[in-house]
């Protein structure tokens, strides 16, 4: 079973992995804009026209997932529709290739959707100590065929009351854009810089994300305006049947009138009744406001793989095992 190893993606289509966050294009954006000063390693295993690619980042004698806070989840790039057993076998081949060269390989964030356990089992079969721990939460919404009115009727009374009171005077106009122009980027930046949020660490990544999504028809950039000036922005993409909320911000000078909440109401209505999405995903993080809009949470898992032949890895493995017992993913 051949393994292709490179510092740039090779042998896969630009849209490898379909939509979402396990695509060649997504990982390339991360590598270019967030990890430009790091050495990225792409490992690809192939068999019978099917393949798995793991994009990784080198850190001395350790490897980590090519992922960060922009990533809703991490997973291998899968092409050719291998079966679950086939995927595990391909990942195991990569894991065997890494053993002896690296002391530790870590992956985060992993969804508890089968991917995390497939990765764990593959690395364990290749001789690694592979441990999963619960690290964070993901808030999401399954609509189960509901329209917006039905969904909205189930929101907390405090939220519904706030939208009713704040929206009564119609202080804002709302827009949704499917492309990112220079003018719209300036609007986005103006709101973000006037918000409560820390400075964006990689603004070029956010613009690249928006432009790449626009090119495949997936961008939905929401803007609230007061007398023409932008006061709230939200950057969403549609990944398959799921709407993903990447960025939200509003001008703190308008806190009293809650433009961010009103823009969320407008966008949720649009996504549910017009776009007909089946799910809405708020990404990683356990922010309190997400509970008002979402209905479910699921764990975000971390997989740490240690080479047991390296004595210096025994103590970190033991510490991770203790953490696993305290925060066991199930």
Automatic annotation (TrEMBL):
This is BioF2-like acetyltransferase domain-containing protein. InterPro entries: Acyl_CoA_acyltransferase, BioF2-like_GNAT_dom. Pfam families: Acetyltransf_6. It comes from Sphingobium jiangsuense. The lineage of its organism: Bacteria, Pseudomonadati, Pseudomonadota, Alphaproteobacteria, Sphingomonadales. Residues 158-291 form the BioF2-like acetyltransferase domain.
